[in-house]
Design a protein that fits this description.
By secondary structure, this protein is mainly beta. The chain is built from three helices and seven strands. It has a five-stranded mixed beta barrel. It is globular.
Length: 150
């Protein structure tokens, strides 16, 4: 096989609200930590063990703005993207490294707004699916409900 593949699919919970960074070029990025859990039974002790893996998620432009608007800490999301590693020099001269997931597609699986609405027996919008090109300026210019599909 001559080609390669860099693809990640994750389902997890936001560990914090989406943090936005805006640039002078009218573009932006949103970042948030995503927790995925693995649970298994220790064969020797019978104890249930849960381990959590943290992932640094990066979304761009209109998609980042949608995430900031609709997602908050604790919400469940499906993210599809690619792994990207970066390095930089810190102020103290040390080299820092980070591995991030650049989101290409995501689906809101549950949001606090939906949970609160269910508690109050209110109608909620269906789960939202967003697919975008992270290198592009963002999603179509239509309003949110027409941008998102099931």
């Amino acid at each position: 096989m001559n080609g390669t593949l860099n693809k990640v699919m994750l389902i997890g919970h936001l560990g914090d609200d989406v943090k936005m960074h805006y640039f002078k070029t009218d573009s932006c990025i949103g970042k948030f930590p995503l927790a995925t859990n693995e649970t298994y039974i220790n064969k020797e002790t019978g104890e249930k063990i849960t381990s959590t893996e943290w992932h640094n998620i990066v979304v761009r432009n209109k998609a980042a703005e949608l995430c900031e608007k609709y997602l908050s800490k604790g919400d469940k999301i499906f993210v599809e993207g690619r792994i990207k590693s970066r390095q930089w020099q810190a102020e103290d001269g040390t080299t820092k490294y980070i591995t991030e997931i650049q989101a290409i597609d995501f689906t809101f699986l549950s949001t606090k707004k939906e949970s609160d609405a269910h508690k109050e027996n209110k109608a909620v919008e269906p789960t939202k699916n967003v697919n975008f090109d992270p290198e592009n300026s963002g999603l179509p210019e239509n309003d949110l409900p027409s941008q998102l599909s099931n």
